[in-house]
Amino acid sequence: MKYLPENVRLCLGSREIPWPGLAALRARGKILELTQKEMQFTKDEAARFIGFDDDHLYALAEGWPLAFGSFKVLFQNGISPGATPSHGHDTLYEYLLHECILRLAPEVVDFLHTTACFEELDAPMLNAVLGIQNARLILDSLAARNIFTIRTSGTVFRYHALFTSKPLPSAMLPKRNIQLF
């Protein structure tokens, strides 16, 4: 990228924060980053996109464009807005599972499954509850990679509403070695 001609523009897309090698370009203002916050629909944009305002759907999707695209397809196929969460979950969950969950290490999938019941995720509390020492590292990694995890304050996180609204299918959970005595 150092040797690209001036008239060339490069566009990179990633779920993860760009690698450290781009720090110099970022410092010189040569990179335009669009984060989850810039990409999510506002309430008004979501209402224009699906054709009506629905507080419940907006709260469930948290502005996520893919969720609203899925909802819109359901509406076009005759599903009523009231039935959208139950019908929409299958489509969205299939996406979440195949694009996100299946690419994670089994330990991280287990962490997500075990901690999805908490409204707030605090690393010291999770370390104590789970008997681990690396909850902060896992939470930071999930948030940096935009995997269902949102930092609400310096050390506190939460999961996206779509992720916590339905448990992970047992087939997606890591297989544990069970020893019988």
TrEMBL record:
Protein name in the entry: MalT-like winged helix domain-containing protein
Native source species: Formimonas warabiya
Top-level taxon: Bacteria
Domain MalT-like winged helix: 99-164
Lineage: Bacteria, Bacillati, Bacillota, Clostridia, Eubacteriales
InterPro entries for this protein: WHD_MalT
Alphabetized Pfam families for the sequence: WHD_MalT (PF25873)
